[in-house]
Amino acid sequence: METLEHIIAEHPFFAGLESYYTNLLTGCAANVRFDAGTYIFKEGEEANEFYLIRTGKVALEIFAPQRKPIMLSTLGEGEILGWSWLLPPYRWKLHAHAVQPVRAIALDGKCLRTKCEQNHDLGYEMLKRFAHIMEERLEATRLQLLDVYAVG
Amino acid sequence: MTMATTATTDPMLPQPYSVRQVLKETADTFTLTLESSNGSGRSAFRPGQFSMLWVFGVGELPISISGHPAQNDRLVYTVRSVGQATHALVSREVGDGVGVRGPFGTGWPVEKARGGDVLVIAGGIGLAPLRPVIYEVLHNRDKYGRLVILYGARSPRDLLYRKELTSWARHRDTQVLVTVDYGGLSWRGHVGVVTTLFKYARLQPARSVAMACGPEIMMRFVARDLETHGFARENIFLSMERNMKCAVGFCGHCQYGPHFICKDGPIFPYDRMRPLLEKYEL
Amino acid sequence: MATQARSVLTLQQLEKLIPALRGRGYQVIGPTVRDAAIVYDVVESLSDLPVGWTDEQEAGHYRLRRRHDEALLGYVVGPQSWKKYLHPAEVRLLSAERSGQTFRILNNEPAPPRRAFLGVRACELAAIAVQDRVLQGDRYRDPIYAVRREGIFIVAVNCTQAAPTCFCTSMGTGPRVREGYDLALTELVGPGKHEFVIEVGSEAGAEVLAELSPSTASEATCQETEAAVERAASQIQRRMDTTGIRDLLYNNFDHPRWDNVAQRCLTCANCTMVCPTCFCTTVEDVSDVTGTHAERWRKWDSCFSQNFSYIHGGSVRSSAKSRYRQWMTHKLASWIDQFGSSGCVGCGRCITWCPVGIDITEEVRAIRESPASSSPVSSKERSHGNP
């Protein structure tokens, strides 16, 4: 059976981190489950955690008046969900909707935030990794925005 | 005195074909099956090749062949109606005549891909020129390693070949992942651009050949991401598109840098395309 | 296989050339004056030629002027080239009839007449060879070109004068004709003299020449001929340095000179129409009102036209800059990769007939002399202090 420590240490997102830090992270981690149809977090709520998705699918959504929720993109197995815990105002910008049953590892972002302020080396390591995810998502969003399959 | 020519002496002479079937794939996309009207048409082709289809009195279009390469008694095309000529083509009915010239162009590197894994990446109508590759690999399954099909479309309603996508996924060592840019209400699959599917592809880049077809911007993003994921530039292939009037290297319209897309392409390795793709208004 | 022995024909003897060709079934095409220019058309006798006329050419300038003598071939090149006949501006590809759901292609295009070209300059011979390579020497053969090219009888002309717009010497194509002709003429005209020195380039040429009963050219005449052609070469003013020109243009895609020329270029396509090697065409479909008869017509097209590079959604090359760059890069650089030689023969027509006088030799020089900087901000402008 895979331990939390093992999963975190082996995950590509945390690759290259000193074992001291992975231990720290493991200390802030917990296994979580979400039933299909539930919201993992909602726009505006305090962002205190981020998630490492192990199975299932999460849709990032925005609600607009008089419209059903708009699905912007989906995240699946192995992907990281949530970076709003890392940057002020520490509030979620989107809804995260489990469209399939989701098993994930939740990491205590609030706790981690404090540790990053105290230990800038750890802070830099975390920011580097999240910057990479943001860049990937931004690239993908740009391509999505271009609506390349539209006619004319 | 006249100069009567034949198909072998005159590459601009269409062969008469007849529509055998018209299948509606989506609101604006149809698949036509054509058969030679007089037995003189060449219906054999290599995956990735295209024909020039002539609609009497309207115009001629380059359309990729999207059928099974082993079925050389017919030619199949998936056409999206975007203008006058494509509209005329998709409005053909069973029994109507269509002029066919070709097949033209280089094909996908299905021989080079043997013995390794095959990654097919399609965007929108780009799945049509790649379908013959999928047929080829599944028809000769033992000659290839893993087959991964990544397909992105605008929305669920724009997905082509839905039933086949499901049946392809059932083959051994075959992975089919589909995503859409806009999910809509009842879509439970991936939402996002096709590059977001790369991380799920189960294959070994070092022994894989990637073949991508879709809008040019999409292919640029795809090729760049494939390189990041360990693909060598010479193992990534793109299907390029430009205006074509003749398909035989005479009209000059399809030039892309020094290449004639009609006869040097339409399929090119990324190492040759990369310096050209960066050039605006080439 | 040009023999070194040269013959001489008097003007009276030359008069029999056109009838001799016509007698062998050729339709003779030659230079003639029309609409204040020297163009190519059917000629029936030497009097149809531009006797006593010359052309005055510079960038964006063409005028006919009277000569002081009665030379038949005392001009350089006009707006037309032999592609008018070999690669016609408009030609029907096919006609078809529809009945019910099916159609029948009639495939009965009339065969063109066998032609003799009279007055083909060295640069023009080179241009014909260039088009031979494009339209007959690659993966596909164009039967329209092939049937017009086959059996052509060529009477070439050595130039004895050059226009300011000529630069054949830079392109290695002239002024002396070297091969690819049946007969070559050099016209020697002076006080009390008007004769034509002939070189034979083929058996067909020898056979026609024999009918004209030429005399052998004397040593003095041969020397005079050499001197006349040398004079033409010495009159050449423009130069194009073609050293490494392919990489020069490939590597300067973003050179500011393209913006400069774009401000002048009208994208009028004159250059592509007069250029003897430009070959781009388009195909148009026409049908009658009842929709039962349809035709496909092939017509000259130009990469300068707005829709040349149109694919769904728009044209790839929509700016004038990109279109001028495409033409020049194709002509001087990509052509080498595609067909093994330059596409330019140095005839200078594009310079003469450009309404704003864009000079292709000048554009190459400008790019060569100021290599593009690698960043859009020159080092002089970069500062580290307060703005």
What does this structure look like?
The complex is a heterotrimer of chains A (152), B (282) and C (387). Chain A has helices spanning 4-10, 19-27, 109-118, 120-145; strands at 29-34, 39-41, 49-55, 58-62, 70-75, 80-81, 95-98, 102-108. By secondary structure, chain A is of the alpha+beta class. Chain A has a single domain (4-145), classed as Jelly Rolls. In chain A, a hairpin with a 7-residue loop joins strand 4 and strand 5. In chain A, helix 3 (109-118) packs across helix 4. Chain A is globular, with a radius of gyration of 16 Å. The model of chain A has no long low-confidence stretch (mean pLDDT 90). Chain B has a seven-stranded mixed β-sheet, sandwiched between helices. Chain B has a six-stranded antiparallel β-sheet with strand order 4-3-6-1-2-5. Chain B has a two-stranded antiparallel sheet with strand order 13-14. Chain B has helices spanning 84-90, 127-139, 162-169, 216-228, 270-277, and strands at residues 15-24, 29-36, 50-55, 59-64, 75-80, 97-104, 117-123, 147-153, 174-180, 190-191, 208-213, 236-239, 255-256, 259-260, 267-269. The relative contact order of chain B is 0.14. The model of chain B has no long low-confidence stretch (mean pLDDT 94). Chain B is α/β, with parallel strands linked by helices and 282 residues long. Chain B has two domains: 15-103, Beta Barrel (Elongation Factor Tu (Ef-tu), domain 3), CATH 2.40.30; 117-277, Nucleotide-binding domain of ferredoxin-NADP reductase (FNR) module (Rossmann fold, 3-Layer(aba) Sandwich). In chain B, a hairpin with a 2-residue loop joins strand 13 (255-256) and strand 14. Chain C is α+β, with helices and mostly antiparallel strands and 387 residues long. Chain C folds into two domains: 7-234, no CATH class; 245-369, no CATH class. Chain C is built from 14 helices and 16 strands. The relative contact order of chain C is 0.16.
